Amino acid sequence: MRVQTMTETLHLISIRETSASDIYASGAKLTVKIAGQSFFTGNEAFKKATEVKSLVSALQELGLSEDDIHLLNVSTEVESGILTKTSTATYHLLVNCQSITMLGRVLAAISSQKNSKLSAIAWQYPGLEKTKRDLIQTAVRAAKETAHAVADSLEVTLLGIHKLSYDLSGLDTALRVPDASSYPMRARKAKTAALDSLELSHTTTLSITVSAEFMVETFARSGT
Q1: Which of 3, 26, 85, 176 registers the highest number of CB atoms within 10 A of its CB?
Q2: Where residue 16 sits, what CATH number does that domain have?
Q3: CA–CA separation, 119 vs 171, rounded Å?
Q4: What average pLDDT does this structure show over 215-222?
């Protein structure tokens, strides 16, 4: 906290307040890389690419629907500049696991496919926008109360807000490649060691820091 004079007539009190809350993932979006022995695009990849069909079938057996599995892109290396359906291909799929309780089984299904590899994960949080709004409101109210307390201590009158901004930290939703040494999951083992017997969860702390500048009357005027 500090008192800052921006101009000869503008007197400010700068306040920073932070509000935070733990948030819990309800699901996750996974990107999966599949090495295929043939090249197809669009819906043909789901119908004719053997490796893709195998993974999709395994996921659908767990209860995932067609709407939960999307083809992001297909890449290939061609010889002599000629692309044919017999060219090898790398398929990138987006798998939407809407239930955190299913995540272990979904990961097990992916790892069971010899040509499939998890390449990234993005956590999904329920009610995220409401949580952000609530944290902003809490931090703003705290900043206002602190500004009033500082103004009272300085024996000046708080005139109003001049500028306000906020920063968000801790939100962990961006797709990224998981790091095995610091994988953001807590696994609680059941009686067996199989991956599909693990309960997986993810928690992060969402923080909102509000920076506010409040206008106050001049110190000279308050001292008279």
Answers
A1: 26
A2: 3.30.110.170
A3: 20
A4: 71
Residue 131 pLDDT greater than 50, yes or no: yes
Cα–Cα distance measured from residue 184 to residue 182, given in angstroms and rounded to the nearest whole number: 6
Alpha helices (H) along 113-161: 128-154
In this structure, the answer to whether residues 81 and 151 fall within a common structural domain is: no
The tokens describing 19, both together, are 């509000």
Report the chain's C-alpha Rg in angstroms.
27
Q: How far apart are CA 56 and CA 212, in angstroms?
A: 51
List Cα–Cα distances, 67 to 11, 21, 63, 75, 97, in angstroms: 57, 32, 11, 22, 11
Query: Can you tell me the distance from the alpha carbon of 200 to that of 181, in angstroms, rounded to the nearest whole number?
Result: 16
Q: Are residues 147 and 213 in the same domain?
A: yes
Please give the angle made by the CA atoms of 39, 43 and 46, to the nearest 5 degrees.
70
Residues 33 and 18 placed together within one structural domain of the fold: no
Instruction: Please identify which residue in the block is written with the tokens 């789901």.
Output: 46
Q: Which two tokens stand for residue 204?
A: 């992060």
Q: What is the model's pLDDT at position 218?
A: 77
Residues 96 and 68 sit within 8 Å (Cβ to Cβ): yes
When pLDDT is averaged across residues 110-134 and rounded to a whole number, the result is 93
Q: How far apart are CA 56 and CA 47, in angstroms?
A: 10
- The domain in which residue 153 lies consists of 2-24+127-178+185-223
Could you tell me where the beta strands, DSSP code E, fall in the chain? 2-5, 11-24, 27-36, 69-75, 89-97, 116-124, 158-169, 186-188, 199-201, 203-216
